[in-house]
From TrEMBL:
Stored SUPFAM superfamilies: Winged helix' DNA-binding domain
Superkingdom field: Bacteria
Protein name: Transcriptional regulator
InterPro entries: ArsR-like_HTH, HTH_ArsR_DNA-bd_dom, WH-like_DNA-bd_sf, WH_DNA-bd_sf
Lineage: Bacteria, Pseudomonadati, Pseudomonadota, Alphaproteobacteria, Rhodospirillales
Biological source species: Thalassospira marina
PANTHER family to which the protein is assigned, alphabetical: TRANSCRIPTIONAL REGULATORY PROTEIN
Residue ranges of domain HTH arsR-type in the record: 9-87
């Protein structure tokens, strides 16, 4: 079971195609470093770092320092085991006190 903030954080992190791709790459390849992921995705290292940070804050990936093939220090990322089952019941269990309810200023009407 997830709490409301964890569920929201994970859903937000997984709502971007690049971040979904990163999770898939890491699940297939194991541990990869930032530069490798950025090259494979065709995006800049700073942009890849931003995506990885969002995944890390959601608890979906973790990072360790190590040495890349060229001998330089690098941050290696890998998937953190997680299971995200999304049903009306799991949403209700994650939000028992209705803390996800929109605030007055958040309304669309």
């Amino acid at each position: 079971m997830h709490d409301a903030q964890t569920l929201l954080s994970q859903l937000q992190a997984l709502s971007h195609p690049v971040r979904l791709w990163v999770v898939a790459m890491l699940a297939r390849e194991g541990e990869l470093y930032v530069s490798h992921l950025a090259r494979e995705a065709g995006i800049s290292r700073p942009l890849m770092k931003m995506h990885l940070k969002k995944l890390e804050l959601a608890g979906l990936v973790c990072c360790e320092s190590g040495l890349a093939e060229n001998g330089k220090a690098a941050n290696f990322y890998r998937v953190t085991p997680f299971a995200l089952t999304l049903t009306p019941e799991t949403i209700a269990q994650a939000d028992p006190d209705a803390s996800l309810a929109p605030h007055q200023g958040d309304r669309d009407d």
